[in-house]
Design brief:
single chain; alpha/beta; three-stranded mixed β-sheet; 5 helices; 9 strands; globular
């Protein structure tokens, strides 16, 4: 499950969304021209990317703590249960409260995506399916996760600091400055993923705790 503030080194998929217009009988909005007829699935907007340098704080405060809206979080939880279950073949990623109160859902097939939202509503009738906006991704989450798992322990001349997903379109790897600049390194990584695109950026080597830990008295 991901919110706008979530950042993780594990394989995951991050995505952003804009408000979509037009609702079908399922209550799920697809990207379309508000004055035109509903667009076919092929015309749906691709899963966008959040700017990592922009502020990603949730829209609400409870006792001074940023939190997601209850309606957005509830729908997101229900979608996640289905996305990692019966709909893992199409579920890519989601983002809560972008815009506030809505859930941007990225899937590889819009028809199956609508069924996913309907299943989420059936599992939790309090989760409002009309708050879901559908976008298209190229790869499901499980495909990018499997591809990323292949890279974690590889020895290819440069260290791999972290592996993650990118809005259902690629596997993201962080390495040294030299690794990020190496076209050969990138090509080797993409060969290891079986052709799934890989982006390599400069990152920081993870720090590990050293020394013996003792239990608190």
């Amino acid at each position: 499950m991901k919110t706008k503030a979530a950042v993780t080194a594990a394989v995951c998929v991050g995505a952003a969304a804009v408000l979509l217009t037009g609702c079908g009988k399922s209550g799920v909005a697809d990207k379309a021209d508000p004055v035109a007829a509903p667009a076919p699935p092929a015309a749906a907007a691709p899963c966008p990317v959040i700017d990592p340098t922009a502020s990603q704080s949730p829209p609400m405060l409870i006792d001074g703590t940023p939190v997601n809206t209850p309606e957005g979080e509830r729908l997101s939880q229900a979608i996640g249960e289905q996305g990692y279950g019966d709909f893992a073949d199409v579920y890519s990623t989601q983002i809560v409260d972008h815009p506030s109160g809505r859930v941007a859902l990225c899937v590889t097939d819009l028809a199956r995506g609508r069924l996913l939202v309907a299943a989420a509503h059936a599992a939790d009738p309090e989760a409002d399916p009309a708050l879901a906006d559908l976008y298209l991704s190229k790869y499901p989450h499980r495909t990018l996760q499997a591809a990323g798992d292949k890279l974690i322990d590889l020895e290819m001349g440069f260290p791999i600091y972290s592996v993650s997903g990118s809005n259902g379109a690629a596997v993201e790897v962080t390495s040294t400055k030299e690794g990020a600049a190496s076209a050969e390194f990138k090509a080797k990584l993409e060969k290891a993923t079986g052709g799934i695109p890989v982006t390599v950026t400069k990152g920081e080597q993870p720090t590990t705790l050293e020394g013996q830990m003792t239990a608190a008295p």
